[in-house]
Amino acid sequence: MSADTDYSKGELSADTDYSNRELSADADGLIANTGECDTDGEVLVIKQRWCCHLPPSPYPMYLANVFCIAAYYINSLLLQDLLYNKICYQKFQNLSLCTDSTFSTKHPELQEVVVKWYNYHSALSIPLTMLLNLMLSSYCDKIGHKLPYLLPCLGTALSAVYLAVIASPQFITWPLPTIFVFSIVSSAFGSFPTILMTSFSYCGLVARVDNRSLVMGLCEASILVGVFIGNLITGPIIDSIGLPSMAYINAGISLLPLPVLILLTDVTTEANLSNNWRNVVKLAHILDAFKCVFKKREGSKRLRLNLVFVSYTCIFMASAGASGNSFLYLVKSKGFSLTLYSVFNSYSAILKTISCPLILYVCKRFIKPQEHTIGLVAISCAAIGYIIVPIDILPYSVWIGVTFFSLDLLAYAVIRSIQLSCCEKNELGLIFAYDAIIQSTFGLTGSIGIKALYSATLTTWNGMYLAICALLTIISLSAFVWLSLLKLREKFSN
User: Fold this and answer.
1) pLDDT greater at residue 331 or residue 404
2) Could you please report the per-residue DSSP string of 284-298?
3) What is the DSSP letter of 49?
4) What pLDDT sits at residue 27?
5) pLDDT of 467
6) Residue 155 burial by CB count (10 A; 0-12/13-18/19+): exposed, middle or buried?
7) Angle at which helices 408-421 and 371-388 cross, to 10°
8) Which of 48, 214, 250, 320 could bond 33 through an S-S bridge, CB–CB 3.0 to 4.6 Å?
9) What's the confidence (pLDDT) of residue 16?
10) Given CA atoms 11, 47, 297, 219 in this order, what sign does their dihedral have?
11) Got the DSSP string for 207-266?
12) Closest Cα partner for 48 from 224, 266, 214?
């Protein structure tokens, strides 16, 4: 690609000229041609694979996210279903009885045991997942994004096959700790945090400065679309053909990102052709992400970067806590039917995956407000939504509330855009590795903690957990206001 291609103008040269230089094969085992492009004043090294000569674009990454996240989420649902079947069989010795939905409603105590063992699975998975995520972050910055993205897909496929085996009737008697093999296999390849780190760092690298929030918002939306599809298809297929068959199908879904990654044009900011995976994937690099976040930066960038992580952590904990208790609150306390609960989830998913990106596009194309303004409005709306939902005297309070707090994807998009503006292009892998750690650990702890709070306050006020979610969102808003004032002061001083 010609060196004068300017992404900041939103244009690509029609007669793209790729350099004839050749690189030695990296860990992907493929000969790569390179070119260069200029984006936001920085030269990106373009790494081509096979016969594909497409310009760098985030759209293949969006599609890969849909497939990979759908497969990951299906595995999560399959594991919970398998745990329930095993626990129920150990107690009642009747598999057909355990797979009867009407029987499960009469034995809620089994669900508590399922939650306990699923938390064991999460606790075992997180350390290994985080370790690999931190080690691969430098690979993304210095070599490329394809291999780090492919690894979680392979891990999901292998773990899905294992689930299919131990879910079959002849192995249902195997002890519960056998699920830990699933935990190790899925986490040893990076799992969900590595998908987040790779997709966000790639999209941030190829995004133009004038549409960063839209690109990052669409990346976030593609992940939610994958979750929605996984949730939509898993139940009907299990009911039709059984859990083991669904697990084998999911192994195939896990590999669908592979042809998409072939079309992905990889880019890095690292022009050192001697880099290979042996140089960058080392235990010595596991602290690089933390050093990168806290290192001294120009002006107030270090403080703003850490404030944006505080803002993100609080609003994400609130979102995870609210969604983690939504079933118990709406179905058991508010009296929603399962059909109405599905409508509620679908409505929230549509708002997040369609309405929020559309709002971002309209803002960027026509209204053109400051990004910080969009973030402030979005976080404020989320706080208002959590406050409105438990107000029983307000008609349709649940639907009004979810309309407000589902706009939090706008805040995520702006937050990730601010993260990009506070760091260099050659450290996006490190920044989003740290981001993925926050999303995984605080998402889990937030969900568990707020679920415990819901259980403790159920007899006094079942909406207390939503008040805590609102409080967390207000803390997020305070941090965001602070970093916005820092940016404004820096702008006027310059």
Assistant:
1) 404
2) GGTTHHHHHHHS--S
3) E
4) 35
5) 95
6) buried
7) 150
8) 48
9) 36
10) positive
11) --GGGHHHHHHHHHHHHHHHHHHHHHHHHHHHHHH-HHHHHHHHHHHHTTHHHHHHH--E
12) 266
* Residue 19: pLDDT band with limits 50, 70, 90: very low
Query: What is the Cα–Cα distance from 136 to 201, expressed in whole angstroms?
Result: 12
Is the pLDDT at 365 greater than 80, yes or no? yes
Q: What is the largest CA-CA distance in the chain?
A: 73
3-state secondary structure of 444: helix
**Structure confidence at residue 28 (pLDDT):** 36
Least confidently predicted of 73-77, 96-100, 173-177, 416-420: 96-100
Phi-psi region of 149 (alpha: psi -120 to 50; beta: other; left: phi over 0): alpha
Q: Which residue has the tokens 């679920």?
A: 451
In eight-state DSSP terms, residue 58 is: S
**Local structure of residue 25 (DSSP, 8 states):** P
β partners of residue 48: 33
The DSSP symbol for 36 reads: E
Sorted by sequence, the CB contacts under 8 Å of residue 414 that are 6+ apart come out as: 213, 371, 372, 374, 375, 378
Candidates 58, 105, 40, 64; CA nearest to 425 is 40
* Stretch (H or E) spanning 351: none
CB 306 within 8 A of CB 479: no
Q: Exposed, middle or buried: residue 401 (CB in 10 Å: 0-12, 13-18, 19+)?
A: buried
Lookup: tokens for 448: 């568990």
Name residues whose C-beta falls within 8 Å of residue 167's C-beta, 6 or more positions apart in sequence. 78, 82, 85, 243, 244, 247
**Cβ-proximal residues to 74 (8 Å cutoff; 6+ apart), any chain:** 160, 230, 233, 234, 246, 250, 253
The yes-or-no verdict on residue 22 having pLDDT over 70 is: no
The mean pLDDT of the chain is 83
Q: Is 81 helix (H, G, I), strand (E, B) or coil?
A: helix
Residue length, the chain? Answer: 494
Residue 188 near residue 28, CB atoms below 8 Å:
no
Across 177-191, b (16+ Cβ under 10 Å) vs e yields eebeebbebbbbbbb
**Would you give the DSSP letter of residue 94?**
-
Asked if 383 and 470 count as a contact pair (C-beta separation under 8 A), the reply is yes
Which residue in 394, 440, 458 sits closest to 152, CA to CA? 440
Average pLDDT over residues 68-91: 89
Per the DSSP assignment, residues forming a β-bridge with 36 are 45
Band (pLDDT 50/70/90 cuts) for residue 11 is: very low
Dist. CA 264–CA 202, nearest whole Å: 10
Compute φ and ψ for 27, nearest 5 degrees.
-65, -15
The DSSP symbol for 6 reads B
